[in-house]
Amino acid sequence: MKLNRRLNQLSEAEYRYLLVNYRRYTDFNSLGLFRSLLENERLDLQQRQRLRDAAADAFPKFYEFLQLKDPDTYFGLNTLGQELTVADKRAAWDEIKRAQQRILSNKRIRHRNFGLYTKHNCGYDTCPFNGLMVRQGARLAEGVMSFDTDKRISNNRHVDHRAEQRRRERKAWANTQNYLAE
Ligand SMILES: [Zn+2]
Asked: What's the CA-to-centroid distance between 64 and ligand 1, angstroms?
C-alpha cells in the first residue's frame, strides 16, 4: 500500500497513526519522516517536539544514525525550540561530531559507507562544522548556502561565511577606490 501523501502535510494525529502503522506503506521512509517534522507547516512547536520524541522512540537507531546521515536535520530536530547562543550551537555540533566518530568506529559502517562521507572543510578556521562528517553531495559538504525556504539554524553560520566574504570584497573594492581617489 502506498502512502500517497506528502509527509510534510500530515497532522499530528496522522503522524501518530503512521508511527504505529508505517510497515503497511511501501513508500514510507524514515529519513523523509524526520525531515518532514521540520518542514511541516501544519505543526506548531509543541507538536513538532512531541512528534520528534515519538519518532525517535519509534526509530531510536535511525535517529542516532541521523547525526551522520543528515546532521543538519538532526541538529534542527534535537534543538527544536531552544534558544541557542553561539557557544551552545558550537557545543551541540561538537556533540554531533563525537557521536559521528562513535558511529563510524563501528566497523560495518566504516567498510561499507565510509567513502560516502567527507569532512567539512570550508577554509574558515572558526567554522563550527570543521571536522564534521557529511555525506558527499550533502548541502553542508558543498558549503552551499540557501537563503530561501531553509530556516534551519545550522545554516546561519554558512550564511555568515558568505556575508563575511562579501564584506571583504566590498572593503577591498573600497580600498581600491580610495587609492585611486588619492
Ligand atoms: Zn564552514
From this structure: 23
How remote is the CA of residue 142 from the centroid of ligand 1, in Å?
9
Q: How much distance in Å is there from the Cα of 140 to the middle of ligand 1?
A: 8
In this prediction, residue 18 carries a pLDDT of: 97
Q: What digits encode the pLDDT tens for the residues 85-109?
A: 999 999 999 999 999 989 888 766 6
pLDDT in tens, 41-76: 999 999 999 999 999 999 999 999 999 989 999 999
Crossing angle for the helix pair 30-39 and 45-58, to the nearest 10 degrees: 170
User: Which residue segment(s) compose the domain that 79 sits in?
Assistant: 7-141
Q: Measure 153 CA to ligand 1 centroid, in angstroms.
A: 14
Does 177 map to a domain?
no
> If you measure from the C-alpha of residue 24 to the centroid of ligand 1, how many angstroms do you get, rounded to a whole number?
41
Compute the residue count for the chain.
Answer: 182
Q: How far apart are CA 147 and CA 52, in angstroms?
A: 25
At residue 28, the 3 state secondary structure works out as coil
Domain count, the chain: 1
